[in-house]
Amino acid sequence: MEVCGSSSPTLREFGCEQNLLSRPDGSSSFIQGDTSVLAAVYGPAEVKVSKEIYDRATMEVVIQPKVGVPSVRERAREQCVRETCEAALLSKLHPRSSFTLVLQVVHDDGSLLSCFLNAACMALMDGGLPMGCLFAGVTCAINGEGQIITDPTAVQEKGSRALMTFAIDSTERRVMMSSTKGSFTVHELQKCIAISQKASEKIFQFYRDSVRRRYSKTL
Amino acid sequence: MLNSFKDKIGDVLLPGDVFSVQMPESITDSKPEKIVCGPGLRRNGDEVLVCKSGVLRHKPPNLYWIDSQQRRYIPVKGESVIGIVTAKSGDIFKVDIGASEQASLSYLAFEGATKRNRPNVQVGDLVYSQLIIANKDMEPELACIDSCGRANGMGVFGAGGLLFKVSLGLVRRLLAPQSEITVDLGKLFPFEMVVGLNGRVWVKARTAQQTLIVANMLESCENMTAQQRQVLFRRVADGSI
């Protein structure tokens, strides 16, 4: 477990562990403050004939809530994560196969979607799936006074006017996916994107450090 | 170009890292340098893209690849793998090699097999075989003979022994010439070991206990530094474990 301290733009302390499950091809756990997600990836594996795509791999994302069965909200988040993964993965290299990503919520204390994205990226990297770039998820909340809070807790999310989550790619720091809720101006949106891009640098540096630590024994 | 690679040898790289190919304008008359990209590196126009996380390795003169610790096997032509026969259908066997698709193995691809003289292979048997067709668009195909028609160590496994899975990175370390792990293990007691590049390892020692010792030690080698491993091997050799 590695922990990265927080500084501006403020993210809560985050940590991760790779290769912690024995059965899946790749696995990771990602912790942002009190929010914690466990991710497992399988692939390239056999695919059902009905879901087979002849020129690329089928990406499947399953989100398991802490309690109960997945509902519409989980489905919406699954779609966000799936589309981000599809954009990052080089799925053309494994036609007629499937990549399955299972995300288990361990604890939700705000910024859950960004934690899903970060855990997913770590798990995909651990599984050795071919990727064109990495991605990081950053959540921004705009509170009643118009202040922007990055990586908000559940309480901060509840008191916010608007909530936005962006997936940022590692090569050009562009927005790969965005999911927004509430009302905000165009100016605020652009400000949030700029802040997220800045915050993503920290996450990408953290990715690099933790992967380096993982391979330190085989160097 | 070559320099940008040479600086990074032994470094940990992440997907999305690029090496740009910038030919110096001044020496256009000299022969262009050629590099060979192995697993984890892809050419993308004028640049080389890293698509897996791992350590950049280099083999003289100009071969580069990413050494990663993954678990899922992706078939590559010419590699030797351990497969499990899952079905017999007509004149082919279906073999599970741990990839996304089952591989096919013709019953004629055994040493001395003819239309009349079929090899004795049952469902559930293990086979050590070589991939003769492996690409992303086709079903992988195996053969238990080399190009001269000799078995050359390949074929169906005998009774006994233990099969287990390790990561592909460890398998490559075991198969490296003069691998320290294999040499050290061999000093403990005699045993037979078959290593497939698909991450499957089969071990058979004189007793079941010794077989399990070898299997457990190999599995624990995965996340150990050289010193930690030597300490463990010494303790086992002394009989304290």
TrEMBL record, chain A:
Pfam families, sorted: RNase_PH, RNase_PH_C
Keyword line: Cytoplasm, DNA-binding, Exosome, Nucleus, Phosphoprotein, rRNA processing
SUPFAM superfamilies with a match to the protein in the record: Ribonuclease PH domain 2-like, Ribosomal protein S5 domain 2-like
Molecular function via GO: DNA binding
GO biological process per UniProt: RNA catabolic process; rRNA processing
Record's subunit section: Homodimer. Component of the RNA exosome core complex (Exo-9), composed of EXOSC1, EXOSC2, EXOSC3, EXOSC4, EXOSC5, EXOSC6, EXOSC7, EXOSC8 and EXOSC9; within the complex interacts with EXOSC3, EXOSC8, and EXOSC9. The catalytically inactive RNA exosome core complex (Exo-9) associates with the catalytic subunit EXOSC10/RRP6. Exo-9 may associate with DIS3 to form the nucleolar exosome complex, or DIS3L to form the cytoplasmic exosome complex.
Family, per entry: Belongs to the RNase PH family.
Name of the molecule in the record: Exosome complex component RRP46
Biological source species: Umbra pygmaea (Eastern mudminnow)
UniProtKB/TrEMBL annotation, chain B:
This protein's record includes keyword Cytoplasm: yes
Chief localisation class: cytoplasm
Protein's UniProt keywords contain rRNA processing: yes
Start and end residues of each Exosome complex exonuclease Rrp40 N-terminal domain: 38-72
Coiled coil residues, start to end: none
Gene Ontology cellular component terms for the protein in this record: cytoplasm; exosome (RNase complex); nucleolus
CDD domains: KH-I_Rrp40, S1_Rrp40
GO biological process: regulation of gene expression; rRNA processing
Start and end residues of each K Homology domain: 161-209
Keywords for the protein's UniProt record, in alphabetical order: Cytoplasm, Exosome, Nucleus, RNA-binding, rRNA processing
Compartments it resides in: Cytoplasm; Nucleus, Nucleolus
Entries under InterPro entries matching the protein: Exosome_RNA_bind1/RRP40/RRP4 (IPR026699), KH_dom_type_1 (IPR004088), KH_dom_type_1_sf (IPR036612), NA-bd_OB-fold (IPR012340), RRP40_KH-I (IPR049469), Rrp40_N_euk (IPR041054), Rrp40_S1 (IPR037319)
GO molecular function ontology, one term from the record: RNA binding
Family: Belongs to the RRP40 family.
Protein name: Exosome complex component RRP40
